[in-house]
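User: Can you help me understand a structure? I only have the sequence.
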Amino acid sequence: MVIHQCFISWSGEAWSLPAGSCPYPIALIIRNQERSKGRMMPLINPITQPADDGEIEAFKAWAKYPVPDDYLAFLREHNGGYLIGDDPCFYNSDDQSVASVSAFPRISERIDKCMSKMFEKYFDFFKVAFQTEDLRGNYFAPDNYIKIANDAQHEHILMDLKTGRIFGFDDEAEEELETTEDFLEACLFLADSFDSFFSQIVDEDPDS
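Assistant: Let's start by predicting it. Here is the structure, written out as tokens:
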């Protein structure tokens, strides 16, 4: 099997080069140079093989709401993985760091798709459905919100399946949550879509 390193431009063009001895397929997003001033998104170290059509269909059935195409395309390439970098963060349109992003959970149910023995014992935990159900049970998240990424601290990155918008939620909120309305008020808007969110994750301070 030949492993390639895939480079995807802001415009969506992609090309690949042999990755030599690299043990993982790695994707790198290169942002618009004028906006990013040369900043680059951190690498994704995958822990699970890409989601296949059967897993995508099972995930869509579990979600109950239409899942945005941009997120499904991401799952077909990166079915869970950790970001590699010094301090990967999501920056808003004002170039302010809003959320640290450490990992994306997977949707696969099959442990044989795990690419690292180190993560097999955490396989059930590191799943979109498992982490979403935890938020619904403990913090009253509505059923149209799913968890799509982890913060490095106590923040959860969520997607509203009704709108495709991305939100952040801090589980160390000062006030105890008692209703879904409380949960929604505690959420911080991040981006209009998954693609927008994903493209604004960088590994350096904008001013550096």
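Now, to help you interpret it: The first strand starts at residue 4 and ends at 9. The two ends are 39 Å apart (CA to CA). Let me know which part you'd like to focus on.
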